[in-house]
Amino acid sequence: MNSFSNIAIVHKDSKKIQPISIDLVAEEPLSIRVDGSPYAVVMRTPGDEIPHAAGFCLTEGIIDNPEDISSLACCDNQDNCVVTVTLTADRRKKNAGCVDRRGYISQTSCGICGKELIEDISKDIYPIVDDTAITFSDSIACLENLFNHQPLHQKTRSTHAALLIGTDSTVWSSAEDVGRHNAVDKAIGKLFLNAHLVQAKILVLSSRISYELVQKCARARIPIILAVSRPTSLAVELAIRLNITLACLAPQSGIFVFCGGYRLLSDTVT
Length: 270
Fold this sequence. Notes:
By secondary structure, this protein is an alpha/beta fold. Helices cover 29% and strands 30% of the residues.
């Protein structure tokens, strides 16, 4: 399946009407099955199905390490729309039934208040102990570099992007998707499967920061999130609890730092 398609449309303005062609991002369902049973269906941009499923399983708390996976593969004759994840016997025993569509906390969007949500998440995820720090100018450079890793967005103007960057500004992983959560899972999954996730210290997002993305970062042990848009109030509350740094671009210049500012060092700030 292609990540985008070209279609014929009509362009209208105050002077003329003319037929043109335009690229649209693809959106297809991906079914993730765990130990033979359906676990989740996510709407995503086709591509990176295996890393996507691996990153999803890590950030949803189904697994902790690549060694927890016995097998990971796309189903035959399914056009990569179904990925099956088989856990090891030890991991299956450790999960003790939680894989039976518990859905983890990120699947919950109603029927629970913010305080209860944060308390529930904190039972499953421990605060990050990591004193990684970057300079103000490096944080701006990370955000400015985002566009260079969005070829699909440059074609379609409708995808989110996620970058995973190390302390030396190396971009270790990048992904685009119609869904911001999917982009994060794909970027994390690529490093997770190669046992290089420990190199990722900064997540750069093209979107706002929601509590689910903070949760995913905590599961991946990434201490810094930089984004184009602001976080939600719940994301800030959770990030404080989990010791994660949150910052976003400020409207005119510089960045807004919401929490964990000790990891963002001053240099050329005036």
